[in-house]
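Fill in residues.
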């Protein structure tokens, strides 16, 4: 049995991570997706347990103390964290797994799991990123500015990633991500159980 592919899709908020991952999961139904925890209030379309596990800062901090997260990061004033249990279970069951942390989380996960595959998803330009964040109507204008500011810092992390996908066409972006998944599944090192 081959080892799991741990696919980490990161990049600026508004690049389209959620949509690309959602489409990939439709065509790859066995791919496990890790729902992460956040202290951010839900957006109008978000469902607890589907988009995030929404929690309070107090409850989140308790989970930090009991070692329930693989990594946590404070992004735009809210805490986000990857639950250890879900990831460990999926890997133990040899399931392929996809995660979508911001870039600091991606780097932290790569330290824990050196075989993880880091994919950076971007919008075609900063202007387009701004348009997408505005079109989404999910965040207040000050929050959008904050996200764009963070995006500039996130671009600096690109060199630490293995793949880059420019999301100017959703179908192609999903195809690109699927190609990476398929190629990683075929790696000899993964087939023989060595880290890939
Ligand atoms: P948003 O508020 O837009 O849903 O998320 C803000 C950023 O945090 C996005 O880049 C999102 O991908 C990222 N994010 C979501 N869950 C986690 C997590 O568990 N850890 C980290 N480090 N980032 C996360």
């Amino acid at each position: 049995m081959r080892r799991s592919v741990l696919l980490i899709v990161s990049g600026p908020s508004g690049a389209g991570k959620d949509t690309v991952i959602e489409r990939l999961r439709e065509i790859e139904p066995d791919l496990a997706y890790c729902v992460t925890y956040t202290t951010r209030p839900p957006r109008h379309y978000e469902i607890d347990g589907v988009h995030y596990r929404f929690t309070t800062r107090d409850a989140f901090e308790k989970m930090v103390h009991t070692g329930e997260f693989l990594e946590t990061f404070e992004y735009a004033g809210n805490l986000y964290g990857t639950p250890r249990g879900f990831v460990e279970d999926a890997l133990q069951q040899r399931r392929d797994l996809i995660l979508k942390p911001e870039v600091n989380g991606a780097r932290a996960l790569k330290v824990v799991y050196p075989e993880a595959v880091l994919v950076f998803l971007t919008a075609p330009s900063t202007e387009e990123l701004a348009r997408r964040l505005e079109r989404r109507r999910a965040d207040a204008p000050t929050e959008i500015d904050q996200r764009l500011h963070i995006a500039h810092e996130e671009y600096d992390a690109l060199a630490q990633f293995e793949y880059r996908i420019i999301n100017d066409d959703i179908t192609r972006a999903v195809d690109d991500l699927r190609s990476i998944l398929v190629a990683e599944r075929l790696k000899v090192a993964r087939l023989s159980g060595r880290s890939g």
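The chain has eight helices and nine strands.
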